[in-house]
Amino acid sequence: MPATPLIDSHCHLDFETFDNDRSDVLRRAKDNNISDIVIPGTEKIYWDRISSLCKNHSQLHACYGLHPYWINEQNKPHIESLKRYIELNRPVALGECGLDFRPQQAEKKLQLYFFEAQLGIAEQNQLPVVIHSVRATETVIQRIKKFSKLRGMIHSYSGSLQQAKQLVDLNFYISVGGSVTYDNAKNIKQVVKEIPLASLLIETDSPDQPDKKNKGKRNEPAYILSTVKAISEIRDESVDMIARQTTINAKKLFAI
Ligand SMILES: [Zn+2]
Fold first, then answer.
1. pLDDT on residue 72
2. Ligand 1 center from residue 11 Cα (angstroms)
3. Which residues form the domain of 93?
């Protein structure tokens, strides 16, 4: 275990799947030297759930946003609600928001409307933004460029190395999780190897995307250690160095 405490930069600990044993999950996180966990928002109806969870646990940090996956269940006035909610409940970031261009997802035009509106709110409130991008990285880069003062992270990064470098130049962190532990994950391994360590974050995306060892199981923050080890091997740098720098990065981005 690394000596430096770790930060899980993206974890849906508010999801119902943790309702029966959330305190055990938090204890295992603590036992594994995970000091802080960032909880991204998904839908308006769940912002209060995240807010009360974070009020009760000082190591949990809230984000509020409208996730593209559930955008068909939102309506345009939710953008106004988000503005007000953010002003009242100062989160560590706005998100997650973004674009998901897999075929079964909401129509692109609607996704783009909510994405750009949220980027505007983040910039106005000087908040970092947590972005979900699946098969959409080129468009995400285009849209980010419209906002000159924006910064943030791309969670569970799946774009190319070239795009990652562009995102780093645009003040964005590249966040990676359990996928780097899989043998066939050539693309993300190359990204992890080539980008500056000062631009890298680690996450679990719990309860989704478990590492190779826990494939098929519910993911949780304690499993983040395998991601740190995998990054250490890929970059040929010590586990402690990866832990130290990714924790510095997360603290800087989220001001925690
Ligand atoms: Zn997520």
1. 86
2. 7
3. 6-254
Ligand 1: distance of its center to the CA of 132 in Å?
7
- CATH (domain of 99): 3.20.20.140
Residues of the chain with pLDDT under 70: none
Per-residue pLDDT tens over the stretch 177-198: 999 999 999 999 999 999 999 9
Q: How many angstroms separate the alpha carbon of residue 131 from the centre of ligand 1?
A: 9
Give me the residues paired with residue 200 across strands. Answer: 174
C-alpha count within 13 angstroms, C-beta hemisphere, residue 61: 21
Q: How far is the CA of 248 from the centre of ligand 1 (A)?
A: 21
DSSP label at 175?
A: E
CA 219 to ligand 1 centroid distance, Å: 12
Cα–ligand 1 centroid distance for 205 (angstroms): 5
Is the CB of residue 170 less than 8 Å from the CB of residue 141?
Answer: yes
Distance 18 CA to ligand 1 centre (A): 15
Sheet of strand 93-100, all strands in order from the earlier edge strand to the far edge? 6-8, 34-39, 60-64, 93-100, 129-134, 152-155, 172-176, 200-202
**Number of domain units in the chain:** 1
